[in-house]
Design brief:
alpha+beta; eleven-stranded antiparallel β-sheet; about 45% strand; elongated
C-alpha cells in the first residue's frame, strides 16, 4: 500500500504537465509539382504561392506551358505570347489557381475548422465558396494533397 500511493502521485504529476498542443499551419511561399484531377479530367502542373498570389503552370496536356496567376482580385492567363486578364467575380470557383488561393486565404486568416496532427504531418479542414476542403501537410511543411470534397477536385503534391 505504501508503494502504490507514491506511484499514483507520480502518475498524477506526469499527467498534470500534459496539455493539448494546438497545431497551426505554417504557410510559407512554396513551389511544388502536382497531379490534379477534376472529375474525369487530369493533368500535371507546377503550383507556387509567392507574394500573395498563386501560379498554376500546366506541364501536360495541350495546355502545356499555360499559366494562371491569381491574386484574389484577378486572374492573368498566359500562354506563349498571349496574355489575358479576368476580374475575380468572372472567374469560376473551380479554377485551380482561385481554388488554391481561397483555401490558403481561409487558413491564413486562422480560420481552419479543424487542425490536427497526423502520423506524417498535419491535416487542415476548411470551407470556401467551392465547398469543404482538406489540406494535408508533411512534417517538413511541404504539401501532400489538397482535396475539395464537394467539387470532386483533388491535387496530389510531389
Amino acid at each position: 500500500m505504501k508503494r502504490i500511493v507514491p506511484i499514483i502521485i507520480s502518475v498524477c504529476i506526469l499527467l498534470a504537465g500534459c496539455s493539448v498542443k494546438a497545431y497551426t499551419p505554417e504557410l510559407k511561399d512554396f513551389s511544388q509539382n502536382a497531379s490534379v484531377e477534376a472529375g474525369d479530367f487530369s493533368y500535371t502542373c507546377e503550383i507556387s504561392m509567392a507574394e500573395n498570389a498563386v501560379t498554376v503552370t500546366a506541364t501536360s496536356t495541350n495546355a502545356n506551358g499555360m499559366s494562371i496567376v491569381y491574386n484574389g482580385k484577378s486572374a492573368n492567363f498566359k500562354y506563349l505570347d498571349m496574355e489575358y486578364e479576368i476580374v475575380s467575380d468572372k472567374i469560376d470557383d473551380t479554377n485551380p489557381a482561385k481554388a488554391i488561393y481561397e483555401a490558403f486565404a481561409v487558413l491564413k486568416e486562422g480560420f481552419p475548422d479543424n487542425a490536427s496532427k497526423t502520423a506524417d504531418g498535419f491535416r487542415y479542414d476548411g470551407k470556401t465558396a467551392l465547398g469543404s476542403f482538406t489540406l494535408l501537410q508533411r512534417d517538413d511543411y511541404s504539401y501532400k494533397s489538397l482535396q475539395f470534397k464537394d467539387a470532386n477536385i483533388s491535387m496530389e503534391f510531389e
